[in-house]
Design goal:
The structure holds two protein chains of two kinds. By secondary structure, chain A is of the alpha/beta class. Among the domains of chain A are: 192 residues, 3-Layer(aba) Sandwich (Rossmann fold); 57 residues, no CATH class. Helix content of chain A is 35%, strand content 17%. Chain A contains 13 helices and 17 strands. Chain A has a six-stranded mixed beta sheet with strand order 1-14-13-17-15-16. Chain A has a four-stranded antiparallel beta sheet with strand order 2-8-7-4, with no helix packed on it. Chain A has a four-stranded parallel beta sheet with strand order 11-10-9-12, with helices on both faces. In chain A, helix 1 runs antiparallel to helix 2, helix 1 packs across helix 4 and helix 3 runs parallel beside helix 5. Chain B has three domains: 28 residues; 63 residues, Orthogonal Bundle (3-methyladenine DNA Glycosylase II, Chain A, domain 3); 59 residues, Alpha-Beta Plaits. Chain B contains six helices and four strands; from the N terminus they run ααααβαββαβ. Chain B has a two-stranded antiparallel ribbon with strand order 1-4. In chain B, strands 2-3 form a two-stranded antiparallel ribbon. The longest helix of chain B is centred in the N-terminal third of the chain and has 24 residues. The N and C termini of chain B lie far apart (89 Å). Helices cover 37% and strands 8% of the residues of chain B. The mean pLDDT of chain B is 86. In chain B, helix 2 packs across helix 3. The chains are: A alpha/beta, B mainly alpha.
Chain lengths: 488, 176
């Protein structure tokens, strides 16, 4: 298969050797799990359980709302001890509505009846079941998979690109999953193809994972419509738009979606979750998490239930050898700093990274921009980060937008390449947030203005009705008087 | 009798004509900016700016006597719009966080005074029932706070959520 190139990108040190040879281990069930009701893009799930209620493994904890939303299920059997705010795995440490589940240690499943043949189902039915299982994009995007599949089928997508690139340094969860459970991933890919009604699938793996590529090729040897492609290692090859460009040479239009090119990208982890949901009636209640970084005693790949505290994961890996300078959820390029270890992992958590000060490059202090243009060379979206950051710094949000702020994928290539160590991505995140806040305020002003006008119109109507009623009464009185006069 | 009627009629016609003449030829040009700014203001006449209603505030703004940040209900969107209209610079820090009405349910007696005054119908609740504020409709004008007999109504800063939080601007000492 002919491969294409994408503009920009960087070559950060892989650091995958820390955990790549560690086989997936199942984390012993923690005594308490904190399962947020919103782990996905869109609307939060509605809680379906009550405090004190006993639940079994796989039972529905929160039902999806209409539109873009996803359900959440109990990762083990036990008792619901609380439903309320709990710190989200987010740098702000702000709370999310969360269900707290105390494990009873029995891990007892709900009765399940796996489907005899999922391929006999209609495509919509397959997508619906994927939605019922609460599956979201496992690569970190957290977009509900069923919605993505249905929309892509309507958009007549012809190819499913399965993302096994795992271009983030340190992360090895997809690598291990492909090495150890290749057959299941391929089955998930075939099921997704059926849901999509697309003709072929391409599994893309970066060339720094030859073992994973070999395992996947072996699993695909009898498949006619599923093919494995090894792509050159360059960050961010695993970003959906860049992966589409590598595979097809097509660039996603500015402001558009990847599916505009006729290709839908799903992560290998999502394919595996789809296999489990349809073949074993196993909802998305656990995932593979890479716990790594220079500060972790024994880096590991763990299969952990959703809602496990970061603290428990680190403890299982022998704790930290030194206080981590940076504790991230996700990889070093796009991972989000955590407010502490008392936060749960969610469906989109691919790794926990505890970096030492040397790894985190904290000694480098930012200095002024020298306009060298390395960020422009590094940007895989073809943007001009130096111009955008300048405008964001001076709060010229419209100016930053005009330079393509909405097309920025926050991959961090520009900040990685910047010799002045300017926190470029933070500028973009700030500008994006400020723009959204501004739009929200404008929308609110418009809506309240409408309410105000409606109220004033209503009051005017009431006033008018009152005046009319008074006039009517006067007229009646006059008439009555006239009648009385005539009678007299 | 006839002399009185005729003289008063003539006087009326003459004075009326003079008034008409004055209205047409001696008209004082009002600032068109005043009108435009008044359209932009929320029109609640809450008086938080210290001027007699939105019209007075618009006049002061048009004359350049008031700061563009004078209107709390308008929020940052209005500040930006006014700054653009009047061609003045605004530093982001001058407008504080938006305030919205909040009802302390423990002390609300359901007097229903507040609901009648709310210019955007943001307060719901029947008499003798606990009232509530629809945050999305509240503009924080504070008209309800004044009439609350139990002081259960307060203006409070809006709490951040994961949806509204965003990264602060990096604090660097040099230009980028």
């Amino acid at each position: 298969m002919k491969l294409f190139d994408f503009w920009g990108g960087v070559h950060p040190a892989g650091q995958k050797h820390l955990s790549a040879e560690q086989a997936i281990q199942v984390l012993p069930m923690p005594s308490r799990l904190h399962i947020p009701l919103q782990q996905h893009t869109g609307r939060p799930a509605i809680p379906m359980v009550q405090v004190g209620q006993k639940v079994r493994k796989g039972e529905l904890l929160g039902r999806e709302q209409s539109g873009v939303s996803a359900s959440v299920h109990a990762p083990t059997s036990g008792v619901i001890t609380a439903i309320g705010d709990f710190a989200a795995p987010h740098v702000s440490g702000l709370p999310l509505p969360t269900v707290t589940l105390e494990s009873d240690g029995e891990d007892q499943w709900l009765e399940r009846e796996p489907l005899p043949d999922p391929f006999a189902l209609e495509p919509e039915e397959v997508a619906a079941r994927i939605g019922e299982a609460g599956i979201v994009g496992m690569g970190g995007a957290n977009f509900p998979a069923a919605v993505k599949l249905s929309k892509a089928r309507q958009a007549k997508v012809h190819t499913l690109a399965v993302n096994g690139a795992e271009c983030e340094p340190y992360m090895t969860c997809d690598d291990r999953l492909m090495r150890e459970r290749a057959e299941h991933i391929v089955d998930g890919v075939r099921l997704m193809l059926h849901a999509l009604q697309a003709s072929n699938a391409v599994i893309a793996i970066e060339d720094n994972k030859p073992e994973a590529a070999a395992c996947m090729k072996a699993a695909c040897r009898h498949e006619q419509h599923v093919q494995v492609v090894v792509v050159p290692s360059r960050y961010p090859a695993g970003s959906a738009k860049q992966l589409i460009q590598i595979l097809t040479g097509l660039e996603t239009p500015a402001g558009g979606r990847g599916t505009d090119t006729g290709v839908l990208v799903h992560n290998v982890g999502t394919a595996y979750a789809v296999h489990r949901a349809l073949r074993q009636a196993h909802p998305l209640i656990s995932r593979i998490v890479t716990v790594t970084g220079g500060a972790v005693a024994q880096p590991q790949n763990l299969e952990a239930p959703i809602g496990t505290l970061v603290e428990d994961l680190l403890a299982f890996c022998g704790g930290v050898t030194e206080a981590p300078a940076r504790l991230l959820m996700g990889g070093p390029m796009m991972g989000q700093p955590l407010p502490g270890t008392q936060v749960p992992i969610v469906k989109g958590t691919n790794g926990i990274l505890a970096l030492t000060a040397a790894e985190a490059r904290l000694e480098a202090t930012p200095s002024p921009c020298i306009r060298c243009g390395r960020c422009v060379e590094a940007c895989p979206m073809g943007l001009m980060p130096l111009e955008m950051s300048k405008r964001a710094r001076h709060d010229d949000l419209e100016g930053a937008e005009a330079f393509g702020l909405v097309d920025c994928i926050s991959c961090g290539s520009c900040a990685f390449a910047c010799p002045s160590r300017i926190p470029l991505v933070q500028y973009f995140e700030y500008a994006r947030g400020a723009l959204e806040a501004q739009q929200r305020a404008e929308q609110k002003a418009k809506e309240t203005r409408r309410l105000l006008d409606q109220r004033q119109a209503r009051l005017a109507r009431a006033e008018q009705a009152k005046a009319e009623a008074a006039a009517r009464r006067q007229a009646e009185k006059r008439q009555a008087k006239a009648k009385a006069g005539a009678a007299a | 009798m006839i002399a009185a009627v005729v003289s008063l009629t003539l006087l009326g016609i003459a004075l009326g004509w003079m008034l008409g003449f004055a209205a047409r030829y001696l008209r004082v040009e009002s600032n068109p900016l005043h009108e435009e700014i008044q359209q932009m203001l929320p029109g609640v006449n809450c008086g938080q700016c210290g001027y007699p209603g939105c019209s007075g505030a618009a006049e002061a703004l048009a004359a350049g006597k008031a700061a563009v940040t004078l209107c709390p209900p308008g929020g940052p969107a209005l500040v930006q719009a006014l700054a653009a209209k009047l061609g003045v610079a605004v530093d982001g820090a001058s407008s504080g966080p938006p305030l919205l009405a909040y009802i302390n349910e423990a002390t609300c007696i359901g007097c229903a005074h507040c609901g009648g005054r709310c210019p955007t119908d943001a307060i719901i609740g029947a008499p003798k029932q606990i009232h509530g504020v629809i945050q999305d409709a509240c503009i924080g004008c504070g008209l309800c706070v004044e009439v609350c007999p139990t002081e259960c109504l307060q203006l409070r800063p809006v709490a951040l959520t994961l949806k509204t939080w965003y990264w602060p601007k990096p604090a660097l000492s040099f230009g980028v």
